[in-house]
Each structure stands twice: as structure tokens, then as C-alpha cells.
Specification:
Order of helices and strands: HHEHEHEEHEHHHEE
CATH topology: Rossmann fold
Helix content: 40-55%
Strand content: 15-25%
Largest sheet: 7 strands, mixed
Bound molecules: S-adenosylmethionine
Structural class: alpha/beta
Number of domains: 1
Length: 249
């Protein structure tokens, strides 16, 4: 049984609320204009390093069509294109985040924006050689459903790389998370975006998300092989690399 209870804090969208998904989407729509700036200030540029690690874990998959799941303002879609990927689909349920992303695309980039829910992907067949989901899945109410959908649209041998703020287990990570989430995120994020409530929600969503090992168990239950799962530095973000077995249907 999953312990995911994303949004179970005192700020913004609340777990169990039937309108929670709409509230989360509206929140990202509101944050879109300031998201890129807030992100790079809050992570002090470390997010670029994390994304680089994520791309490296995809290996040769980037020679085929790639799905950027919960693509937001498309940092990874752009990075995939610049790394030589021939085709990227940037998928996200916030039209405004994708709009900001589209305005950032280099000329001629074969990156298509598609609006939709990660729990219900629109492709019928295994369309993608690989996929990446960065800092989005903790907002998705049913991670098992999202992972099953991801599995379904990947080609056999395809990899899915997840970068995420899982619930910290180690003491140093818990302390780091606590200070960052309770103090830095709402204060600095609120100051840049003018929406401290939204950044309060994002802080709560990190505290309330699954531990990485539980996420990995669910991924394996839906059929993925686990290639790698580890914390990145500083000990806030983690990387999970999954693979759809070659012999899968
Ligand atoms: C924190 S942002 C991360 C964006 C981007 N991947 C990055 O690394 O900067 C999370 C993104 O997940 C999207 N998202 C949240 N829940 C979603 C869902 N159920 N389906 C699709 N996208 C979702 C949000 O709209 C938002 O753009």
C-alpha cells in the first residue's frame, strides 16, 4: 500500500480534496511566469547539475523519440534536443508552464508540447525510446497509475529516468530538507513569485512524498527493472533509472 499523501500540509491544494488536481494545475499555471527564475535561485544552479545526471542516465535512448513527462517550462526538453535527441514530446497538464517552455525553445527544435495528465497518456502503442520525469511525479496523486502509463508507452529496452525529492530517510537529508522546506522554499519562492502559499504547498509535497525505496518497489511491481536508484548531492534530490525489459510485450 502506498504511503503517498502529497499535499497533506496546511498550504494550498489538499490531499483528499476531489478538486485537488485542478488546484495543483491552477497553481502551476500561476507560477509559470516566475518558475524558471525561482527555480534557479532556489537551487543555486544545482538543478542544472541534477538534470545533467538525469540525461546521462538515459544513455543511448536519447537517439530515439523521448518523452519529457511533467515537462513544465521544458528545461529537459531543451537539454534533450541540444544533446542530439531527434524528437521530444513535452507533456504536462499545465498549459501555462508549456507556453513558457515553448517561448524558450531554440529555433528549429523538434519539441512538441502536449497538454495532459501523467496518469492518462494519450498514446496507444509503445512510442518512446526513453522518458524523463523531473520533479513532477510527487504532485501526481496516483504514482502507480503514472508509472504503469509510462511503462506502456515505452519501447522494450527503453529507459525512464526520474529525478525527484523523495521523502528523506537519512538524518542529514531530513535536517537539510526540514530547513529548506520550512524556511527557504516558502520565503525565497514566495518572494520571487509573490505566491508564498504555492511554495508552501511545494514544501509540503516534498515532506509528504514516498521514500525512494517505496517508489522503486511500485515501479518494479508495474514491470520495470531497476537499473539505479541513488541520492544526488546536496542530499535533497534523488535519481531513479528504470528499464522496460527487452522481452516485454
Ligand atoms: C516542479 S514542476 C517541474 C517541471 C520540470 N520537469 C522541471 O524539471 O523544471 C512540476 C510539473 O509537473 C506538472 N504536473 C503536476 N502534476 C501533473 C499531472 N498529474 N500530469 C501532468 N503534469 C503534472 C506541473 O504542471 C509542473 O509543470
Amino acid at each position: 500500500m502506498s504511503s503517498q499523501k502529497t499535499g497533506a500540509g496546511t498550504h494550498g491544494p489538499v490531499a483528499g480534496d476531489p478538486n485537488r488536481e485542478d488546484a495543483v494545475r491552477d497553481m502551476f499555471d500561476r507560477l509559470a511566469p516566475t518558475y524558471v527564475r525561482a527555480n534557479s535561485v532556489l537551487s543555486m544552479g544545482v538543478d542544472k547539475l541534477w538534470r545533467k545526471r538525469g540525461l546521462a542516465a538515459l544513455g543511448e535512448c536519447i537517439d530515439g523519440p523521448m518523452l519529457d513527462l511533467c515537462a513544465g517550462t521544458m528545461d529537459l526538453s531543451i537539454a534533450l534536443w541540444e544533446a542530439g535527441c531527434p524528437e521530444v514530446v513535452a507533456y504536462d497538464f499545465s498549459p501555462k508552464m508549456l507556453e513558457v517552455g515553448q517561448a524558450r525553445l531554440p529555433a528549429g527544435a523538434n519539441v512538441t508540447a502536449r497538454v495532459g495528465d501523467a496518469q492518462d497518456l494519450p498514446w496507444k502503442e509503445p512510442r518512446f525510446a526513453g522518458a524523463i520525469a523531473a520533479f513532477g511525479l510527487r504532485n501526481v496523486p496516483d504514482n502507480r497509475k503514472a508509472l504503469s502509463e509510462l511503462y506502456r508507452v515505452l519501447q522494450p529496452g527503453g529507459r525512464a529516468v526520474i529525478l525527484e525529492f523523495f521523502q528523506p530517510i537519512r538524518l542529514d537529508a531530513r535536517v537539510f530538507h526540514g530547513v529548506f522546506n520550512k524556511v527557504v522554499l516558502p520565503t525565497v519562492g514566495g518572494w520571487i513569485s509573490g505566491d508564498s502559499q504555492a511554495y508552501g504547498y511545494l514544501a509540503d509535497s516534498m515532506q509528504a512524498y514516498l521514500p525512494r525505496t517505496e517508489f522503486q518497489d511500485i515501479a518494479q511491481e508495474v514491470g520495470f527493472d531497476l537499473r539505479m536508484g541513488r541520492e544526488l548531492l546536496p542530499p535533497v534530490a534523488s535519481l531513479v533509472c528504470l528499464e522496460k525489459p527487452q522481452e516485454s510485450l
